[in-house]
Design brief:
Distance between the termini of chain A: 33 Å
CATH superfamily of chain A: Cytidine Deaminase, domain 2
CATH superfamily of chain B: Beta-grasp domain
CATH class of chain B: Alpha Beta
Shape of chain B: globular
CATH topology of chain B: Ubiquitin-like (UB roll)
Number of strands of chain B: 6
CATH architecture of chain A: 3-Layer(aba) Sandwich
Strand order of the largest sheet of chain A: 8-7-6-5-2-3-1-9
Shape of chain A: globular
CATH class of chain A: Alpha Beta
Mean pLDDT of chain A: 95
Number of helices of chain B: 2
Strand content of chain B: 15-25%
Structural class of chain B: alpha+beta
Order of helices and strands of chain A: EHEEEHEHEEEE
Largest sheet of chain A: 8 strands, mixed
Helix content of chain B: 10-25%
Mean pLDDT of chain B: 95
CATH topology of chain A: Cytidine Deaminase, domain 2
Structural class of chain A: alpha/beta
Strand order of the largest sheet of chain B: 2-1-5-3-4
Distance between the termini of chain B: 40 Å
Number of domains of chain B: 1
Low-confidence stretches of chain B: none
Oligomer: heterodimer
Number of strands of chain A: 9
């Protein structure tokens, strides 16, 4: 299961709207405990696929190294990634699957139709190797932010 | 030096996010890592013994594939290696 708070959930969806008609992408930092990828923060990343940004994304490894370092300093791990599908369903594609290598991590996809975020789905990359990996539908729990009480 | 292990591979490094090794070059460091944690080897290298195409190894902020001396690049205890699988896709 993927757990994230409202603020992170909306930030991911807003990112996809901002970059429309191009794909957005980013990294989910948090903790993986007992089968739950618990997201603390979503870090925006640049899409290096400027040649085909409407239907491809790629995060520069150097940026990933930096984000992983930031996470380590905060006691957080990379537990997933997100990207958008402009005018395309929130389902993983053959390209998403072929390029997915972070076993145990959540891959979140938001469909953005005519600039407006629609469905947001998550897929857990299961398996133990490249040869037996698979995407599984993953439940998404959006926790309401606790408000301060007077 | 320290080698940072990404989340998917920690199952093969006794759940350690960072492994410390003694090495004088990048190649020695990676050899020391897979000697201590042999199960990591097939996840990092192809059958031909080359780094898998989607596995990136960074010496601090430099991709080791683009270092002039590649695996023979000298390292010190202050350096860190980061193993980072690639992330890409699209609809």
């Amino acid at each position: 299961m993927l757990r994230l708070n409202e603020q992170v959930y909306h930030a991911i969806r807003r990112h996809g709207e901002e970059t429309y008609p191009h794909e957005c992408c980013g990294v989910l930092l948090g903790r993986s405990v007992d089968g739950v990828n618990d997201v603390e923060d979503a870090i925006r990343a640049g899409n290096t696929r400027t040649d085909s940004a409407h239907n491809r994304y790629n995060i520069a490894p150097q940026e990933l190294v930096r984000i992983q370092r930031q996470g380590r300093e905060r006691g957080l791990d990379i537990v997933g990634f997100y990207h958008s599908h402009p005018d395309h369903p929130a389902q993983w594609s053959k390209t998403d699957f072929a390029e997915a290598h972070w076993l145990g991590c959540s891959y979140v996809i938001t469909a953005v139709e005519k600039g407006v975020a629609q469905a947001t789905n998550s897929f857990l990359l299961t398996g133990t190797t490249e040869e037996d990996k698979a995407f599984e539908d993953e439940a998404v729990e959006v926790a309401a932010l606790e408000t301060e009480r007077c | 030096m320290k080698i940072h292990i990404p989340t998917p591979l920690r199952v093969y490094s006794n759940k350690q996010d960072t492994v410390s090794v003694s090495a004088t070059t990048v190649g020695e460091a990676l050899d020391a890592l897979t000697a201590t944690h042999p199960d990591l080897k097939k996840h990092l290298y192809s059958e031909e013994g080359k780094l898998r195409s989607f596995v990136n190894v960074y010496l601090n902020d430099e991709d080791i594939r683009y270092l002039p001396k590649k695996g023979a690049t000298e390292v010190s205890d202050k350096d860190a290696l980061s193993i980072i699988p690639s992330i890409a896709g699209g609809c």
